[in-house]
Amino acid sequence: MARLASTVLVVALLAATATAFALTEGLKLEPSPILGTDVAKVFSPVCECESAEARISFRLRRADRLDIALVDSDGNTVATPIRGRHFPRGRVVVRWAGVGADGQLLPEGEYRPRVHLRQARRTIVLPNPIEIDVTPPAIESVRLSRRVFSPDGDGRSDRVLVRYELGEEGRGLLFVNGRRRGLTRFPRTEDRVTWNGRQNSEGLPAGVYRIQLSARDPAGNLAVRTKPTTVVIRYVALGRSRVVTTGAARFAIRVSADARRVRWTLGARSGSARPGTLRLRAPRQKGRYTLLVSANGHTARAAVFVREHSR
C-alpha cells in the first residue's frame, strides 16, 4: 500500500511538472501583447523646450485597459501617469512630465515604464530606460580663429571659426548681437561653429559685432551664454579720414584690407597697390579732394585738403 502511494505521488509530481513546463513553453511561444516600443532616452522637465516631456510609445496587439507607471532602479513605483484607461488596438502614445505621485519633480536618474494589461493579466516592464537630466552643459573653453574678417567672398578671411569644448555632449549655439546665427549639427564634447558674417547672401555692414556661445545637451538643457567677445567686420579701412597737404606733395596713408590688392582714385589719377602703407602725390591745385580706396566692391574714403605752399 505504501509503495502504491509513493507511485501515485511520483506520477502526480511528474504530471504537474509537465503541465508547468507546457504552460511555460506556451507563454514563450505566445507573442508579446506589446511591440514597436519607442521610448525617449533622456529629457529635461525644466528646459521649456520640445524635450520637456518624455514620450512613451508602443503598439498593442489587442485592445485592453492599461495602467502605465514609472519605476526607479529599485523597482519602486514613482509615478502612474495612466491608470485604468482603455486603449484600442494599435499605437499608444503617453507623455510623462517627470513628476512623481506627489506632483513634485523627481530627482535626476533613470526610470523605466511598466505597463499592466488588465484584461490580458500581464505586466511588462519595458527595457528602455528614461533618464531625467536637468543639469545644463558647462562651456569649458571658447577660441576664435580671428577677430577681424571680411565676408566679401574672396576666400581670404571670409569667416570666423568658433571652437569650443563642453563638459558633456551638446550642440553649440552661436549668438551675434543677441541673435542666433549658428547651430552645430551633432551633440559633441568639442566642435566648432562658423559665422560667415552674411545675411540674405550679402555681407553685413562693416563694424563691431558681439559674439556669444551657448550649448544645448540632448535632454534640452541650455548652457548660460558666454560673455560677449567682439569681432570686427572690415572690408577696407583707412588709417585716417582727413589728410592736409600742399600741392604736388607726397603723403602716406594706411590701408587695411584682406584683399590682395586695392584700387585707389584721387582727383584725375588712379591706380592699384597692395594693402599697407599707400604713398601718393597730392594734386597740384589747391582744393578739397576725395581719396577713394576700394576692394571687392567695398570702398573707404578720406578727405584730402590741398593748400598752397606757404611763402
Helix and strand topology:
Elements: H1 2-29, E1 34-39, E2 42-43, E3 54-60, E4 64-71, E5 77-87, E6 90-96, E7 109-117, E8 122-125, E9 130-132, E10 139-144, E11 148-149, E12 160-176, E13 179-183, E14 188-195, E15 198-199, E16 202-203, E17 207-216, E18 229-233, E19 236-238, E20 242-246, E21 250-257, E22 262-266, E23 269-273, E24 276-281, E25 287-295, E26 298-307
Parallel strand pairs: 2-9, 11-18, 20-26
Antiparallel strand pairs: 1-3, 3-6, 4-5, 4-7, 7-8, 7-9, 10-12, 12-13, 12-14, 12-17, 15-16, 17-18, 19-21, 21-24, 22-23, 22-25, 25-26
What is this entry, summarized?
With 311 residues, this protein is mostly beta strands.
Give structural notes.
With 311 residues, the chain is mainly β. It has 3 domains: 32-132, Immunoglobulin-like (Sandwich), CATH 2.60.40.4070; 139-233, Immunoglobulin-like (Sandwich); 236-307, Immunoglobulins (Immunoglobulin-like, Sandwich). The protein has 1 helix and 26 strands. It has one helix spanning 2-29, and strands spanning 34-39, 42-43, 54-60, 64-71, 77-87, 90-96, 109-117, 122-125, 130-132, 139-144, 148-149, 160-176, 179-183, 188-195, 198-199, 202-203, 207-216, 229-233, 236-238, 242-246, 250-257, 262-266, 269-273, 276-281, 287-295, 298-307. The strands form 6 sheets. Strands 10, 11, 12, 13, 14, 17 and 18 form a 7-stranded mixed β-sheet that branches. Strands 2, 4, 5, 7, 8 and 9 form a 6-stranded mixed β-sheet that branches. A 5-stranded mixed β-sheet has the order 20-26-25-22-23, with no helix packed on it. Strand 25 and strand 26 form a beta hairpin.
